[in-house]
Amino acid sequence: MPLIAFWTTFPRKKTRCDEEITGLLPGAERCAYQCKLIDRQEEKLYTQSASAYLFHGSLFNHYDLPKPSSRYLNVLLLREAPIRVEMWWGGQIYKLFMALRKKTKGSLFFISNCRTPSRRERKIRELSKFTEITARGKCEKFFSINGSAESYNCKSDCTDDDLIATHRFYIAFENSNCDDYITEKFYSRISKLLVPVVSERRIYRGIPSYSFIAADDFSSLRDLGNYLNYLRRNDTAYLRLVLHVI
User: Which UniProt keywords apply (predicted)?
Assistant: First the structure.
């Protein structure tokens, strides 16, 4: 029997699959195509996956969605006319602008592997001569050189979130340049409004080309550094790039 899971709760309901909610489908028991309504958390109790997820419109959260798949449908359900659903105009954009106002620094890089097959540390050290890079990790001393690199030895008063909130880019050079291998930092940093800077574009085939900056698009690391400096100074150009990324 197909499963239909309630992804969101409904207003003033204690559970997602409240009896009153299931009553929204009068005559369902007489339908030739029978299904079972379950709570989102109950899905793990079944060997099969849900065929559809139901979302209540007023509680819809685009940051909390199932992973895209052709194996199921996403269904938006409202008990009232859409005019009754309040949505503050510009609310999300306002939050975005407030977050971007804190981003006054250049590139961030967490480094724990000091000797990588791709020799990324050499490239990043060279890049740091042309643009600001903040390095953190057990190999941060590698960046204590003449140039614009800044090394942090953070303690309790300095967290990853503090650094992420103030930087515009994340250096996501892979430790090994292999086909179909993408560092997890590429995805984890995008969600933090950090534009990824990767080493080779070919490794990221299939990913929207405008969602990252590739070092090999530039004739030299100096040119890449100059472009990052331009985006750091030009809020309009940087915002245009960020809107593509998110």
Answer: Glycosyltransferase, Golgi apparatus, Membrane, Transferase, Transmembrane
